[in-house]
Amino acid sequence: LTPQDCRDMRLLVTAGPTAEDADPARYVTNRSTGRMGVALAVKAARRGAKVLLIHGPMTWPVPPHAGIECCAVRSAQQMYDAVTARLPEHNAAILCAAVADYTPVAYSREKIKKGQESTFSLLLQRTPDILAAVGALPSRPFLVGFAAETHEVEANAREKLYRKGCDMLCANDISEAGSGFAVATNRVTVHLRDGSSIELPMQSKLEVADAILDLMLARWQQGR
Ligand code: C5P
């Protein structure tokens, strides 16, 4: 029987990519499948947490579990609105979604016609940074962020941990084989606010999820 060591957690998880519509047929997105976020939701629920999974259009299925409530959104703005609305019910949050950084400035109700030119530009604007917004709240839940990087992984992760106001930041090198998008495994280094970091081995995303939950519980019991 799985120990119910997460039973005091009311955990909000974001997962998957977001899709930023340009017209009725086209959108901007990224390669996230949602698998890491689903693994976190599933493991936390099996360990007794009450989980709200706010997710973009994922290609990875969520296995049914009584402890997981799903909330499907599409765009970064919708994910921001859902997180903001539901956050007060939660005492922990893992923001794992690969939120699009930019969205089309204007949505065209009519399909954009191709022109005679050989190039086409689509003007994009920044989306709200959900993690930074949660991290800046005066009373925030225990907050875990992710960082997918291709270079300067350590330095970028540390900078993000402090700038976005997280308690923990999980960094993964998506240029490394077996780590990152659309694979079953991940190799994550967890950075903590006291300056320490824990290098987890390359393992399945389900095992990574368990290890992250273990570290969260340990920090939580120490009062962060
Ligand atoms: O800045 P960067 O996208 O690398 O940060 C990654 C972390 O921030 C992830 O935890 C991701 O879910 C979160 N994030 C967010 N909203 C954004 C961009 C990133 O919550 N608009």
UniProtKB/TrEMBL annotation:
MF-aspect GO terms: FMN binding; phosphopantothenate--cysteine ligase activity; phosphopantothenoylcysteine decarboxylase activity
Q: Which cofactor does it need?
A: FMN
Keyword Nucleotide-binding in the entry? The reply is: no
Q: Where do the DNA/pantothenate metabolism flavoprotein C-terminal domain residues begin and end?
A: 8-216
Q: What is its EC number?
A: 4.1.1.36, 6.3.2.5
Give the transmembrane ranges: none
Q: Which GO terms describe its biological process?
A: coenzyme A biosynthetic process; pantothenate catabolic process
Q: Which reaction does it catalyse?
A: N-[(R)-4-phosphopantothenoyl]-L-cysteine + H(+) = (R)-4'-phosphopantetheine + CO2; (R)-4'-phosphopantothenate + L-cysteine + CTP = N-[(R)-4-phosphopantothenoyl]-L-cysteine + CMP + diphosphate + H(+)
Q: Name the UniProt key words of this record, in alphabetical order.
A: Decarboxylase, Flavoprotein, FMN, Ligase, Lyase
Q: What pathway annotation does it carry? A: Cofactor biosynthesis; coenzyme A biosynthesis; CoA from (R)-pantothenate: step 3/5; Cofactor biosynthesis; coenzyme A biosynthesis; CoA from (R)-pantothenate: step 2/5
Q: What does this protein do?
A: Catalyzes two steps in the biosynthesis of coenzyme A. In the first step cysteine is conjugated to 4'-phosphopantothenate to form 4-phosphopantothenoylcysteine, in the latter compound is decarboxylated to form 4'-phosphopantotheine.
**Which family does the record claim for this protein?**
In the C-terminal section; belongs to the PPC synthetase family.
Q: What is this protein called?
A: Coenzyme A biosynthesis bifunctional protein CoaBC
- Give the originating organism: Oligosphaera ethanolica
